[in-house]
What we know:
With 282 residues, this protein is α+β, with helices and mostly antiparallel strands. The protein has one domain. The chain contains eight helices and 13 strands. Helix 1 (3-20) packs across helix 2 and helix 2 (22-34) packs antiparallel against helix 3. It is elongated. The model has no long low-confidence stretch (mean pLDDT 89).
Amino acid sequence: MDTGAAYKDFTARLKLLISKQPELITTTLSNIFTMRLIGNKTHGDLAEIAIAEFINQYMYDFRSVHVGKDLYRAKSQEEDIKIINEITKDEFPVSLKAYGDGPLQLSTDKTFSMFPRLEQEKGDVVGSSKVRKILDDPVFSGFSNINVLPLIYDERAQRCNIMVFDYVRARDAAARITREEAGRGRKHPVYRFYDTQGDYICEVRYGDATANALQRGLWTHTKNGLRFFHSITNGWIDYSHNLILVKLFSHALVSSEAGHTTALEKIKEDIVLLKQRAGLSQ
């Protein structure tokens, strides 16, 4: 099984679990987004280890490993966690994104080649066959092979939607690529992909060797490109802040390893109870 198919099977299984036991993901998401009370960027890094542990605790046919930031330069693919299907033994990388409801980066352009390739067209590209030819270029070889799991949140409404971008559908629907100049808050031009009805799909942002790697690459917009996503959580899930967790973190940071060991044992006992209530005990 290729990694794309393995990832699709995983997300289908995750969606099934969430539909049957929504309280498990609600608790996890509440804890993740509580971290924004500590720092605006804190939740993103902690979401990686939280989702990895969620998989390990509640999805018995899968095992997850958090890759870690220290391995970034050695990574051959964009990944935050590695997932192993314990039945088929398939392994596949997953890039976890925790973004607000709006622009979403699907892939960084590490080789800074997507935008320069589109610049060669000298104008708009019109027609499904012409767009498909461009997407078949090796420069775009990773277009449908990036396993991104986005946790899209609406902080004001305190809700989260785990939405997966459907690359296959997007690729099949793309019928026009338009170069749009700087403006409306943009300092640089972008190449936007549209379908035959003129609906927005995704875009490639500027980028050469001097561009900010965190900005260049393939992007979409969760509101404008909504029909090219499918929801793993079956829509929005309301979450709430867990103030006890903040207090736990603050105390843990000034306590010893012995205290952490005791607390961890109590937390493990609580997870066992959650599994029993959900009927997931082995």
